[in-house]
Prior knowledge:
Structural class: mainly beta
Radius of gyration: 23 Å
Largest sheet: 6 strands, mixed
Amino acid sequence: MKKILFLIPLIIISCKKDAPVTGNPSQDSIAVSEQKNPDSGIDSVALRKKDSIINNAPVTKQVLKKGVMRNEKEGQIVRTADAEQLPFKLGEEFTKDDQELILKITNYNKPNIKASISTKEKDFNIRFNQIKLPNGDYDGPFGREITYDIKDKGEIWLIIGKSNMASGNTKGSFTISIE
């Protein structure tokens, strides 16, 4: 009986030990990885201060880091990001025909924007269809690269989708680089 009374505190103390911390997190970067919770729609995000990369999986609904969000409705994907995150790369995937992506960049205050679309898919029909400026004007179409002078400050939209004047595959994954 005395042995049991002696062992109980030892077991309790050993269970309360914190796991040792391994590795040395860098002050130069932030990494966040969360598993998808069926109720929250959160999947994963990896961000670096100097060149943020926002990774996206098809099941991602929202990425809650500095206002980056993702909503999908009736073939239209809407992503929202704050301009303070620039430059960044955004990964996305079209899984249905005739999908389009609207990338809304809020609080944009630079004199121009430069963006490009890259993909590993062969014969992928994708381009910047339009840009919506802070004053509400639209311009386009463009190709897979865009450099555009922005006169006003505010929210701009980059609208990405297929080109009706070209043929090719309209499903696949791609990356948008924005400076």
